[in-house]
Amino acid sequence: MIQKRPYLFHQIIGHSAWVICLFVTFWSVATATAAQKKLIEFGWDEPDPAFMRDHAAEMERSPFDGCVFHIDAKKPGGSKSRFTWEAWGTRAFTEEELRPEVSVLKAIKFKRFTQNFLRLNTAPAKLDWFDDYSAVLANCLMAAWVVRESKCKGLLFDIEQYEGQLFDYRKQKDAKGKGWERYAAQVRLRGREVMDAFQKGCPDLTIFLAFGYSLPWIESSAGKGSLADCHYGLLAPFLDGMVEGAKGRTRLIDGNENSYGYNTPERFTNAYRAMKQDLLPIVNDPQKYQRFFSFSFGLWIDKDWRKVGWDEIDFSKNYFSPEVFEVSVRQALAAADEYVWIYSETPRWWSKEGKPVKLPEAYEAALRSARSRN
Hints:
The chain is of the alpha/beta class and 374 residues long. It contains 14 helices and eleven strands. The chain folds into two domains: 1-35; 39-372, TIM Barrel, CATH 3.20.20. The strands form two sheets. The chain has a nine-stranded parallel beta sheet with strand order 9-8-7-6-5-2-1-11-10. It has a two-stranded antiparallel ribbon with strand order 3-4. The N and C termini lie far apart (50 Å).
């Protein structure tokens, strides 16, 4: 027995060393994963390429890894058009009109602030799904081309119905004549065509959606109601088409705008489970969905400011105090696959004056602390 003790001792030490090694490896992976989480800014201070070029140093000093930006189309010696807001229509924009903005984007020398997404809205959307979509598809290709040429991170594909009621089946011009099934099939086809155009313009594109399937899932009372009766019911078959067309390293991100006011860990974990698993009944291809989708959260720093106000001195009057905001951001970062985005209207993180506007230092400190402790 005495002779066996050294062997047993070495077994214990060896096992302990293996456990320690495993723990260190796990800790390193967890730390690396946490470090890969990214914060994106998206709000009323949304910049254009010229602003980003002129304020690159200011934006690099912010707590963010990147932002959402817009571009205009510019004709030589002529007027400019809002490409971001006019692409989902009957006019096809050209490389010539977009190349000036691409040139500015290429000239920006960001070192850290590299997670920048070009915004593309489904606006003005004064089209029926059975109308000619050639201009829309050409503009989707152009948007992705801008991403590829400028080497920005991807597209912020904003499907909110700012003007035309694109995803509300009840508002379609021939809803009664054609019925839900025909419209859903046509919308799915358009989703596939849009994805094909995106990937033709930029293979392996990252497409950040403020809303994914999570919106029609919530509107349908977790699948209990009919998508035909939902404000965004047609979004589900549209995304079915996008998923169907996704290939390579293309990635879709559900930004889950519904999380704007989340302030408990349960709300984040429940929402993540819903996006990952619960909503699969309204997804046509669950396996491919889980392959190409990742899940994110948005927080609105001055949420409901029109009702509760935005007080720069008495933070208790705001929806989020700095302390609660920090905790919510930290919980969002822990729950998200990679991205968390911060939306704002009244406070501005950057301005022409080269500094934040109506943004108390306590909120910026809270954001920095949340990401450093994640």
